[in-house]
């Protein structure tokens, strides 16, 4: 099992708008294609207007297959066209749990 941590910082004027559009449009598509949502957070301190989400995959090949299918879905492309202009910064990390991690 691997985890993908995705961090996004948004233009302040569009942050609440993003959360609404994501909940209504983006999340259902991501759940359909990716499954495995482990957590979704907003930041209350530090860099504001930021979201962090964690996704679980069997391995890198599983991640690639699922994300490729999502990016080939015209519904996802329409959603991405809507929200990508609002993003200031994006960061993604692949995380592998240790033997003693509660998340395995």
UniProtKB/TrEMBL annotation:
The record's section on InterPro entries has: Dimeric_a/b-barrel, NIPSNAP, NipSnap_domain
Q: Which Gene3D superfamilies match?
A: 3.30.70.100
**Domain spans labelled NIPSNAP:** 3-102
Tell me which family the UniProt entry assigns to this protein.
Belongs to the NipSnap family.
Query: By its UniProt entry, which PANTHER family does this protein fall under?
Result: NIPSNAP-RELATED, PROTEIN NIPSNAP
The name this protein carries in UniProt is NIPSNAP family protein
